[in-house]
Amino acid sequence: MKSLSAQDREFFELVESAGFSNPFSAQRHNVDLAIAGLEANASREKAIQSMLAQVNKRMHRLGDFKLRDFAPEDRQPLKMAVLFQLFHQFADHFDTHIKAQAEAGHKPLKLACGPEIIRALDRYGYTEVNAGRVISFFFQIRRAFTFLSRNLVGESRVMRNLRERAWGTVFTQDLALYERLLWNRLEDFSTFLIGETGTGKGVVAKALGQSGWIEYDVANSRFEHSFTSAFVPVNLSQFAETLLESELFGHVKGAFTGAEESREGVFKQCQTHGTIFLDELGEVSIPIQIKLLRVLQERVFSPVGSREQLAFQGRVIAATNQPVHELRADGRFRDDFYYRLCSDVIEIPPLRERIAQDPDELTNLVEHLVTRIVGGAEKVLSDQVFAAIDRLGPDYAWPGNVRELEQCIRQVVVRGTYDGDRKPRTQNPLTLSLLEDELDANQLLSHYCHAMYQKYASYEEVGRRLGLDRRTVKKYVVEFEEINP
Ligand SMILES: Nc1ncnc2c1ncn2[C@@H]1O[C@H](COP(=O)(O)OP(=O)(O)OP(=O)(O)O)[C@@H](O)[C@H]1O
Q1: Which of 130, 318, 358, 415 could form a disulfide with 281 if both were Cys (CB 3.0 to 4.6 A apart)?
Q2: What is the mean pLDDT of the chain?
Q3: Cβ distance 440 to 483 under 8 Å?
Q4: Comparing C-alpha atoms, which of 57, 61, 79 is closest to residue 70?
Q5: CA-proximal residue: ligand 1, atom 16 (nearest)
Q6: What is the C-alpha to C-alpha distance for residues 85 and 83, in angstroms, rounded to an integer?
Q7: Ligand 1 pocket, residue 434 CB under 6 Å
Q8: Where are the alpha helices (DSSP H) in 393-458?
């Protein structure tokens, strides 16, 4: 039985701790630098190249070997060094494949470097099945890294934290454990994205949804599905109640008037390890919440008009831009449903918080969005946008967040300027009156009692909540209704 020298073993253990930690964490970069023996300001690429050179040198000295030739305690660090080396050797090939697959759409393409990786792993004693799993793992890591870094623009602390959190959603805290045991067990882990409108919840959901596990088919040198079909978004606010149920769970022929053919819902369409994105979850009625809860808990659902139980094998990501705690307090969002989703709640930061943390955030985003909107970097346009933003003043709150920033750029393209979104964010008459300074204390109380009475439909309850007698509440409500017939 072979064994590693103490130095090699220590080095490979370091490689394991670096190579298998979250690439978006601050600690990761420091470990990379320490291993590579570089200065703190060296780039990530440089650190990885230097680390790779050292791994290659030590592996070369070991000559040809199978992992099983080594003592059990040496196998894990050595295996991680092998994976680290191969992953970086083929990273560019995976990038090319990701680009080609994104362009090709839902039909899975052949992975050109697949057979070569299988042969390389075979030299270390990997079986074909295990080598196929390594390819799935490499591909998933590369996708998650690419989608999270490329699509989530922003270097403010909150955005860096967001990428780090999102990586944890895909791979958990422990990538090595994920590789060994958890890769096919994450379907039960749902994610709830919360944040104001336009902050990028859809972008995060898509990056996560397209970064799930996809099985590699060794015999055909291709993945079983394309990552483009792994993400199924549904905007729940777009459908009337009856149609929504059918959209989600499907229906059988004759289930309701107009159901002339049976139809598959999105839960059926979702592939194994795929993701369903339930957007605008705050809009959903209680009966639909109960049905969704059943899918999350029991992983089965029935099409409308059928008793058949179908299995759901994907993962759920939900999102809302509504204040969840208020929805729960009002009884519009069930607690059991919330608890099912709350194990992984990710808050997407508003744009104003990002700008306050890092003034370059706006510059980076504008340049990114200008390139996306007009198809290339346009310095003159970017400068015009910056001038328009300056005119909004330093305290402008960006109520529509990144979506509003896109709108701002479009308006600068068309009109040369942007005036900002100054309308109050709520149409609530009480808030509007308050903003206009038009209420005295008596009117304020009468407005407030009326608003509360609309909500609780009981003078008793409103009185209890406001510390007023029920008769007083009634007096104010009647007064309000007389003035506002
Ligand atoms: N970090 C980001 N980097 C680049 N583009 C972004 C980012 N965040 C959001 N965007 C862009 O802003 C727009 C709005 O994003 P998105 O639709 O994901 O917001 P949302 O939070 O889901 O909004 P809503 O709650 O209204 O559905 C999209 O065009 C998206 O591409």
Answers
A1: 318
A2: 89
A3: no
A4: 79
A5: 200
A6: 5
A7: no
A8: 401-415, 429-435, 441-456
- What digits encode the pLDDT tens for the residues 333-392? 999 989 988 889 999 999 999 999 998 999 999 999 999 999 888 899 999 999 999 999
In the block, tokens 């204390």 appear at 441
Which residue in 372, 24, 369 sits closest to 211, CA to CA?
24
* CATH number of the domain located at residue range(s) 216-347 in this protein: 3.40.50.300
Residue 229 reports pLDDT greater than 60? yes
Tell me how far apart the terminal alpha carbons of the chain are, to the nearest angstrom.
Answer: 91
Per-residue pLDDT tens digits for 248-278: 999 999 878 888 898 999 999 999 999 999 9
What number is the average pLDDT over the span 216-220? Answer: 97
Which protein residue's CA is at the shortest distance from atom 1 of ligand 1? 152
Residue 197, judged by CB atoms within 10 A of its CB (0-12, 13-18, 19+), counts as middle
The DSSP element (H or E) to which 248 belongs, if any, is helix 241-249
Q: What is the spatial distance between Cα 316 and Cα 209, in angstroms, rounded to a whole number?
A: 9
pTM, two decimals, is 0.84
The model's pLDDT over 2-20, given as tens digits with 9 standing for 90+, comes to 899 999 999 898 888 877 7
State in Å: Cα 239 to ligand 1 middle.
21
Q: Say yes or no: CB of residue 23 within 6 Å of ligand 1.
A: no
CA 252 to chain centre: 33
Q: Whose CA is nearest to atom 10 of ligand 1?
A: 200
Measured in degrees and rounded to the nearest 5, phi and psi for residue 483 equal: -80, -30
pLDDT band at 453 (very low <50, low <70, confident <90, very high): confident
CA angle 287, 291, 292 (to 5 degrees): 115
CA 402 to ligand 1: nearest atom: 12
Q: Is the CB of 203 under 6 A from ligand 1?
A: yes
Which residue has the CA at smallest separation from atom 15 of ligand 1?
Answer: 200
Decide which of 195 and 43 is more confident: 195
Phi, psi of 185, rounded to the nearest 5 degrees: -125, 20
Determine whether the shortest distance from the Cβ of 153 to ligand 1 is under 6 A. yes
Q: Is 201 in the pocket of ligand 1 (CB under 6 A)?
A: yes
C-alpha distance from residue 146 to each of 92, 141, 167 (Å): 12, 9, 11
Ligand 1 within 6 A of CB of 207: no
Supply the pLDDT for residue 106.
95
Q: What is the 204 CA–ligand 1 centroid distance (Å)?
A: 8
Closest CA to 279 of 263, 269, 266, 297: 266
Q: Whose CA is nearest to atom 7 of ligand 1?
A: 200
Pocket test of ligand 1: the residue of 203, 208, 279, 361 to mutate, having most ligand atoms within 8 Å of its CB, is 203
Tell me the per-residue pLDDT of 33-70, one tens digit each, with 9 for 90 and over.
Answer: 666 666 667 777 787 888 888 899 999 999 999 999 99
Q: How far is the CA of 362 from the centre of ligand 1 (A)?
A: 14
